[in-house]
Design goal:
Elements: H1 2-27, H2 99-108, E1 116-117, E2 120-121, E3 147-148, H3 151-156, H4 183-186, E4 193-194, H5 196-199
Antiparallel strand pairs: 1-2, 3-4
């Protein structure tokens, strides 16, 4: 029995290692690869790829698994029918970003240093985003995030597909399908919440592989729909 347990443990740890290496490979050479930055000194491995965002111990997994980066405490102005009066949106947006979106904005809001992790500013001097990747705290001109997108929403808004039943049919040759190709399964992480990660995949585990020329924004689906009417990513959800 002990031998069986050890073998089982070995398989489990091996699976975790493979998953970790696969995720690291997805980050390597992408815009989120900070392994070559002089401030990347914690953990002790100076070429750490995962360390700026994740840590094994004392992490805050309420944001995302093993989250080790400083979480933004900024107040955000969210997209809703009050801030964008012409919006016909039916879904109710949370008062502040939640989940994965909160993690993304912990760098992209421009108020938190990219090298603020592990409980301190690595390298001594904070480095913040100042280029076009800075989203800021006013989210009224971005796609709405942090809201529930379910069958009830699609029933009340015929401009969007039912995320539970609508199946994505990407036409891109480089598209990597997931095990569940409904909107909810592929874009909403099966939890009926639309967050930044619904369209963008930092780890490249789903969607179109990162390419600095064809996909610099790490979107999950690249290309136009089969009728050439618009973005395949947008038309995956929007019935226009």
């Amino acid at each position: 029995m002990k031998n069986l347990n050890l073998r089982t443990l070995g398989v489990a740890l091996g699976g975790l290692l493979v998953s970790s290496l696969a995720l690291q490979a997805g980050i390597s050479n992408s815009p989120h690869d900070f392994s070559g930055e002089s401030w990347n000194i914690t953990p002790s491995d100076p070429s750490s790829v995962c360390g700026p965002c994740h840590q094994a111990h004392h992490a805050d997994s309420s944001v995302v698994p093993l989250w080790g980066h400083t979480t933004t405490s900024a107040g955000f102005t969210m997209y809703n029918t009050n801030t964008v009066p012409v919006s016909k949106m039916v879904a109710i947006v949370s008062s502040q970003p939640t989940g994965v979106s909160l993690a993304c904005l912990s760098c992209h809001d421009g108020t938190v240093a990219v090298n603020s992790y592990g409980g301190t500013i690595q390298g001594g001097t904070g480095v913040t985003i100042t280029n076009s990747a800075k989203i800021g705290t006013d989210l009224t001109h971005t796609h709405p995030i942090s809201f529930t997108y379910n069958s009830a929403v699609s029933a009340a808004d015929t401009g969007v597909f039912d995320p539970t039943h609508a199946v994505l049919q990407p036409s891109s040759g480089t598209f990597v399908p997931g095990p569940n190709m409904t909107i909810n399964g592929f874009l909403l992480a099966a939890n009926q919440r639309l967050e930044c990660s619904s369209c963008h995949d930092v780890h490249n585990s789903l969607g179109t592989p990162f390419d600095i020329t064809t996909n610099p924004k790490l979107v999950k689906i690249v290309g136009v729909d089969s009728g050439g009417k618009g973005s395949l990513l947008c038309r995956s959800c929007h019935n226009k």
